[in-house]
Design goal:
- With 211 residues, the chain is α/β, with parallel strands linked by helices.
- The protein folds into 2 domains: 71 residues, Winged helix-like DNA-binding domain superfamily/Winged helix DNA-binding domain (Arc Repressor Mutant, subunit A); 113 residues, Rossmann fold (3-Layer(aba) Sandwich).
- It is 46% helix and 18% strand.
- It is built from 9 helices and 9 strands.
- Strand 5 and strand 6 form a beta hairpin.
Length: 211
């Protein structure tokens, strides 16, 4: 059996950008594109694009470039968004509400099935079409609805306990907006989103550009 090739995290971070740009090209009616044209649009060198895509088999033809729709569909498969992922939001505050109200996730196959909070004042209230549920319903809901992903938009003090609860119930991946690291089994995938760190990187770039 051929050993699976390990793909660098830098390549994986670029794949959603390729996917987004290719989607825009499809909407514009573009059927094929060269690595040079794609590099001009993405601000990544043509050589880097060819190297990135060669990790997955290439997809291009010399003198022709890339078939936009084919490449879009193949990257969709690589990213696993050619199928649906059931997810929940834990935390019905401003950030949780913003995630529920975003229409982009469903377009990418991420289906928000439920939203949970421990504030009893929110019980039976709705965010869009979803009724806010209480935390005592969490475990049963995850098991009954084959929930794969949990987004945690809760204070860091609660995040570790809630993360353990959702993992014990069968969640395989956590989208963690809480400002804390989660110690979970190795087979659980955690994607940490630190909004303040992103802002600090932006601040650094502004400061150094001014200098």
């Amino acid at each position: 059996m051929e050993e699976t090739k390990k793909i660098s995290s830098a390549v994986i971070r670029r794949l959603p950008r390729y996917y987004r740009y290719l989607g825009e090209l499809i909407e514009s009616g573009v059927q094929r594109i060269s690595s040079k044209e794609l590099s001009d649009k993405m601000k990544v060198t043509a050589s880097q694009i060819r190297q990135d895509l060669n990790n997955f088999g290439g997809f291009g033809q010399q003198g022709y470039g890339y078939n936009v729709k084919y490449l879009y569909d193949e990257i969709s498969k690589i990213l696993g968004i050619d199928r649906t992922h059931n997810m929940i939001i834990v935390g019905a505050g401003n950030l949780g509400q913003a995630l529920v109200n975003s229409g982009d996730f469903a377009k990418r196959g991420f289906l928000i099935k439920g939203v949970f909070d421990n504030n009893s004042a929110l019980k039976n209230k709705k965010i869009g079409a979803l009724e806010i549920r209480m935390m005592d319903e969490l475990t049963a809901f995850i098991r009954d609805n084959e929930i794969e992903i949990a987004a945690l938009t809760i204070p860091k003090q609660a995040a570790k306990e809630v993360a353990k609860t959702v993992v014990d119930a069968g969640v395989k991946a956590i989208w963690n907006f809480a400002h804390t690291d989660l110690n979970l089994p190795e087979d659980v995938i955690v994607e940490n989103v630190h909004l303040s760190e992103s802002l600090m990187r932006l601040s650094y770039t502004i400061a150094n550009k001014e200098e």
